[in-house]
Amino acid sequence: MEVAINYLLDRGATSIISSMQSVEEVRANIVAANREIPPHLYERVEEIRKEYGL
């Protein structure tokens, strides 16, 4: 989930729908939003996105 949250925020998303059914999930989302993904993961997401025409 961290990669997805970071990727979307990096692409300018202003809203992300994410599960927050427990305190642990809320904490995980906050941590994910504040981490940077390594460039190689970002590049891989771009490759997959292009491969599937997204």
UniProtKB/TrEMBL annotation:
SUPFAM superfamilies: NAD(P)-linked oxidoreductase. It comes from the Bacteria. This is Uncharacterized protein. The lineage of its organism: Bacteria, Fusobacteriati, Fusobacteriota, Fusobacteriia, Fusobacteriales.
